[in-house]
Amino acid sequence: MKKRVAVISAILENAIEHQVEFNDVIAKFQKNIHGRMGIPFHQEGISVVSITMIGSMDEINSFTGKLGSIDSVQVKTAISKKEIEEVC
């Protein structure tokens, strides 16, 4: 199956309240996720997360849709135009 590389950036504006739900979504897509970096801004109550994943367009859209449906979470995605063969 053809897949693409995607970089998803997410801002959690109420990180403490929504981090469990956010992490649950990430756990459901762990087979597709190849990297994650989070930067907490404790005083502001905000977290910025960057996720790199490889998946079909359906998988990428499902993942970002679930993240974006969480209250106080904004998501932006960049997806490679080049299709790649499935990688390990």
UniProtKB/TrEMBL annotation:
It holds the Pfam family TM1266-like. InterPro entries: Acetolactate_synth/TF_NikR_C, ACT-like_dom_sf, FeFe-hyd_TM1266. NCBIfam families: hyd_TM1266. This is Putative iron-only hydrogenase system regulator. It comes from Fusobacterium gonidiaformans 3-1-5R.
